[in-house]
């Protein structure tokens, strides 16, 4: 069982929002666990319990070479005494990047698949083949989104958070957004900032809501204009913003998810799209482990 640390919420003071009569707080999900951090803790929580119930001893999952989900699965599996297998998209590159090196050091066995083969990851015959190769395992899908993950992310907000008017999260697969949508109060607005390019995300979220029978009491909004060129893409403006935010608040943001979300939120505030009197709660969904690999890849030194 993963035992969470207590999660702090801090108020951030800055004239950028305070002069507009807006209060902004950040909930540090990135500090929820030293092993499985951020939203991945919540997504894995009930999956690990279920795997144990089923008597499994191995987790198998899929992801890219810098994936927070791969890292969290490896660390959480080791923490609860499971073996883990990571099926990685693309060719192996040596030396291993910091994400994969850390996953391996937490006991994860890595297997690389070409992008074309990797695409079959949801097919039954493909999974059966993996079972022949590795024996029985508990399958966690790429990005970790399933019904049990949503059950977990529905626990991110607690009673104390009901005082906020707006809740902000980053969106990848939408599993976190879905759990939050389930748990917001009637007078709350959930804003999701998509880290992927394209308006398909609206349909994706609709389909998750119908598949997992998610109803929301509050209002939801998905913003798809803060992707900076696409998933994992960045520009100088985003990097500058992440550095600025760290200087002001000593809180690291990652360039894939949380950096884009907070950038997008401040852009919304700047353009008067958030009403005066709003009390905003930003969820720091984690992703800090990915910064080292990003820095190495692009020769940068973003704070972490
Ligand atoms: C995985 C991840 C997300 C996206 O979560 P989804 O549930 O896939 O939408 C957001 N932020 C961080 C830091 C993540 O690692």
UniProtKB/TrEMBL annotation:
InterPro entries: ACCD_DCysDesulf, TrpB-like_PALP, TrpB-like_PALP_sf. Signal peptide: none annotated. Keywords: Pyridoxal phosphate. The modification N6-(pyridoxal phosphate)lysine is found at residue 40. Its cofactor is pyridoxal 5'-phosphate. GO terms for molecular function: D-cysteine desulfhydrase activity. Residues 18-286 form the Tryptophan synthase beta chain-like PALP domain. The active site is at residue 67. Pfam families: PALP. Belongs to the ACC deaminase/D-cysteine desulfhydrase family. PANTHER family: 1-AMINOCYCLOPROPANE-1-CARBOXYLATE DEAMINASE-RELATED. This is 1-aminocyclopropane-1-carboxylate deaminase. It comes from Cecembia rubra.
């Amino acid at each position: 069982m993963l035992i969470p640390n207590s999660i702090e919420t801090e108020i951030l003071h800055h004239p950028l929002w305070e002069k507009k009569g807006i209060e902004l707080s950040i909930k540090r999900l990135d500090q929820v666990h030293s092993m499985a951090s951020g939203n991945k803790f919540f997504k894995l929580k009930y999956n690990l319990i279920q795997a144990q119930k089923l008597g499994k001893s191995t987790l198998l999952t899929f992801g890219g070479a810098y994936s927070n989900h791969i890292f969290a699965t490896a660390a959480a599996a080791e923490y609860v005494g499971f073996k883990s297998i990571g099926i990685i998209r693309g060719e192996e590159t040596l030396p291993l990047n910091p994400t994969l090196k850390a996953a391996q050091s937490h006991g994860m066995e890595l297997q690389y698949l070409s992008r074309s083969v990797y695409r079959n990851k949801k097919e039954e015959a493909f999974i059966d083949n993996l079972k022949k190769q590795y024996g029985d395992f508990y399958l966690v899908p790429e990005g970790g989104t399933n019904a049990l993950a949503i059950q977990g992310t529905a626990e991110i907000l607690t009673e104390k958070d009901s005082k906020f008017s707006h809740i902000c999260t980053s969106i990848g697969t939408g599993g976190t957004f879905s759990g939050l949508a389930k748990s917001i109060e009637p007078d709350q607005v959930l804003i999701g900032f998509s880290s992927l390019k394209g308006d398909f995300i609206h349909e994706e979220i609709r389909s998750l809501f119908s598949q997992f029978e998610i109803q929301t009491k509050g209002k939801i909004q998905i913003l798809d204009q803060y992707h900076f060129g696409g998933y994992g893409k960045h520009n100088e403006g985003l990097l500058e913003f992440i550095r600025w935010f760290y200087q002001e608040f000593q809180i690291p943001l990652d360039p894939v998810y949380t950096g884009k979300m907070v950038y997008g939120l401040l852009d919304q505030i700047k353009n008067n799209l958030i009403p005066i009197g709003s009390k905003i709660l930003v969820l720091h969904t984690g992703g800090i482990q990915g910064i080292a690999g990003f820095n190495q890849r692009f020769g940068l030194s973003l704070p972490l």
